[in-house]
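Example (one chain per record):
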Amino acid sequence: MKSDIPTDVMTIRQMCDAYDVTPRTLRFYEAKELLTPIRMGTRRLFTRRDRARLALILRGKRFGFSLEDIRQTLDLYDRDGGLTAQRQKAYELGRKRLAEMEAQRTELDLAIAELQAELKDAEAKGLVPDRAA
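Predicted structure:
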């Protein structure tokens, strides 16, 4: 008996295992129209395109991009039919995000240094409770 299931697709379980995500995550991205799996009844079958898009979504989220930024970048590939515009947009977003992350790191480094100084001052003044108690 021949199967009606296309070759080179993954089930939701296979996607979850391969990308370390939950079914809920995949359904969320589908609801946001970031992924468009083939629907066969209640089954979702994810194509090579879906897998590539999921990899880019997960990378974008790891870098702190918004879903809207990710959507716009992914849509460039579909709209323009190639990688050039998509890569340019990703590069621009990447440069902007890197600057934001570096600014956050600078602020965090300053806050850490200030807190360390406060704690050291408290210790020097004997304001620290006995740690053995």
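Caption: The mean pLDDT is 89.
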